[in-house]
Write a structure and sequence with these properties.
Layout: E1 3-6, E2 26-35, E3 38-42, E4 48-52, E5 56-58, H1 92-95, H2 102-107, H3 158-161, H4 164-169, E6 185-190, E7 193-196, E8 205-215, E9 220-229, E10 236-238, H5 240-253, H6 273-291, H7 300-307, H8 311-322, E11 335-336, H9 344-401, H10 417-442, H11 448-462, H12 465-487, H13 493-552
Length: about 550
């Protein structure tokens, strides 16, 4: 049996008979004819299961240059979007008889799984309900000098689906209805490296006045938010599914720009005031993030979303956005970059450095988000209970002190003045600890929850980078392969240089987005940490004041 090297991490689902493997692992290939793009393999520890063929490299001859993790094998059934929006509203005047594209965008981030089709275990008969695997390698041999070897990328990879190979090889040029060569966006060199060109006048967006509305005589209901950009003052009414559509359009258009995911849809409780306020805050922060981006904030589809109030114009703008000639890798055709030629070795090193940064930041975000979440739970649970338990204990002490009836000649059963003053002071102390417990329970709303939401927002932003990194890695690998073919005289010099020039545009786009993200990260974390620590200081100062007030009660006790 043949050995295969794992090119990329793959998290398998045990319930589907899949293996979890990591980049660099060596597995034994048991069977290659399992199904459409799936192999059966065994790890060094004896675990058996399914692995995606595209993740594997048979260990014979010189290893191929990996070019980023491709998508897993395709699903065997057609995906239908029956739940396009949070209120299951078909809304024909919105959809124009078309399915939403948001799930098509999300599908690129998900691995399709083979169905068991009634078979038990991975060694059962049949092919797990999948079509027969097609292992033909198109373009595996060069066609001769001056002709680029086709098929650099797996056809299911983000790079291929976004048109990266077509762009690099120049096959997109001339296909667009729009005038090719028009520069719509720019990148300039700065002291901090390549950055996106300055946008139009900066602006911000307000979201207010959420209102429950209905259609079809009350059968369908939904929440509308009033969205107002500061630069126009035009108020537009938008539903969640409008945001969902915008998100899908932005993801389709920009392959090397971070478009954070929207807040999750809600099945139950979506008309409760607390949920509506939370959702409005999340959508507001998402819009502000997009508004702060120099490219997104000036693209037509975003401005159409923010300003269009006419129904007919909305439909026209929607169709135009969905037929945009410069989606995916075609976006780089309208991107102007500095003339400086990039060193592919330097670009590759910087690419790997950022990849390590993303992995490290993802791990730290997961850890701190968990810690902050648990700390907030302790505030409203154990911390509150412990302080109130102390408060009850002090009150019980005061109750026992109230039984102080010292013997007197005049038969008056009453504590002395000093004893009563002490009892009152201890009662006050018990009440103080009760109040401190309430302060602990209320505090997460002022700092922990805000910080946790912020951290989750950044976790969502980080989730955009794997596809971006994969796209750029494919680009680098394609350039290196072309250089190799040129050295072997299998490709003309001019053709290889044209591919390198286009690849530089992609690299400049990636570099500009990384620099934008890092600059924004420094600003955002500075502000959130100042806010968090400021609220912590006010919180503990409030506790200190209460404790100080309790302590002064004992100054009045006459001994």
């Amino acid at each position: 049996m043949e050995k295969a090297k794992v090119l990329y991490d793959f998290d398998g689902e045990e319930g589907n008979g899949e293996l979890t493997v990591r980049e660099g692992d060596v597995v034994t290939v048991i069977r290659q004819n399992v199904g459409d793009g799936w192999w059966e393999a065994e790890t060094s520890t004896g675990q058996k299961g399914l692995v995606p063929e595209a993740w594997m490299e048979i260990m014979r001859g010189p290893p191929a240059i990996p070019s980023g993790p491709p998508s897993a094998p395709p699903p065997t059934q057609t995906y239908e979007d029956d739940d396009w929006d949070d209120d299951d509203d078909d809304d024909d005047d919105w959809d124009d008889s078309e399915k939403s594209s948001v799930h098509q965008v999300k599908l690129r981030q998900k691995s399709s799984k083979p169905s068991q089709n009634g078979e038990s275990g991975i060694n059962g008969a049949g092919n797990f309900g999948l079509h027969s695997a097609n292992r033909d390698r198109k373009g595996s041999e060069p066609t001769g000098k001056g002709t680029v070897k086709l098929g650099f990328a797996n056809r299911f990879s983000v790079f291929a689906k976004a048109g990266g190979e077509d762009y690099l090889l120049g096959s997109q040029e001339g296909k667009s209805k729009s005038v090719s060569g028009t520069i719509l966006y720019t990148i300039v060199d700065s002291e901090d490296g390549p950055v996106w060109g300055s946008p139009r006048e900066p602006f911000h967006v307000d979201i207010k006045n959420p209102k429950k509305e209905t259609k079809l005589k009350g059968i369908k209901s939904f929440i509308c938010y009033q969205v107002t950009p500061s630069n126009t003052g035009i108020q537009v009414s938008r539903r969640y599914k409008h945001f969902d559509w915008l998100y899908a359009r932005l993801c389709s258009k920009f392959v090397t720009i971070v478009v954070p995911p929207l807040p999750d849809k809600q099945v139950t409780g979506r008309y409760e005031d607390s949920f509506i306020e939370k959702r409005m805050d999340q959508l507001s922060r998402w819009l502000e993030r997009m508004t702060a981006h120099p490219v997104v904030s000036q693209c037509d589809v975003f401005l159409h979303f923010l300003t269009c109030t006419d129904g007919k114009e909305w439909k026209k703008g929607k169709r135009d956005a969905e037929k945009d000639d410069f989606l995916g890798a075609a976006f780089f055709q309208v991107l102007g970059v500095p003339q400086t030629v990039l060193d592919i070795t330097v670009v590759e090193r910087q690419h790997e450095n950022f990849h390590k940064f993303v992995k490290s930041m993802e791990a730290s975000m997961g850890q701190i988000t968990h810690v902050i979440h648990e700390h907030g739970k302790r505030h409203i649970g154990p911390f509150k209970r412990e302080y109130q338990k102390m408060g009850r204990a002090f009150k019980e002490v005061a109750t026992s002190f109230e039984l102080d009836t010292r013997p007197r000649i005049n038969d008056i059963d009453a504590p002395t003045e000093g004893s009563q003053q002490l009892t009152d002071a201890i009662k006050f102390t018990g009440k103080t600890y009760d109040e401190i417990g309430d302060l602990f329970a209320a505090q997460p709303r002022n700092d922990n929850y805000i910080l946790e939401d912020f951290l989750r927002e950044y976790t969502g932003m980080l989730s955009c980078f794997p596809d971006m990194i994969s796209f750029h890695k494919h680009t680098i690998s394609t350039v290196k392969e072309c250089q190799k073919q040129r050295e072997e005289q299998k490709m003309e010099f001019d053709e290889a240089e044209q591919i390198k020039t286009r690849a530089d545009v992609v690299s400049y786009g990636m570099m500009a987005e990384i620099n934008h993200f890092q600059r924004q990260r420094v600003y955002d974390y500075k502000e959130i940490m100042k806010l968090y620590l400021g609220e912590q200081i006010k919180f503990y100062e409030a506790i200190t004041e209460k404790l100080r007030a309790a302590m002064t009660q004992y100054d009045n006790v006459n001994v």
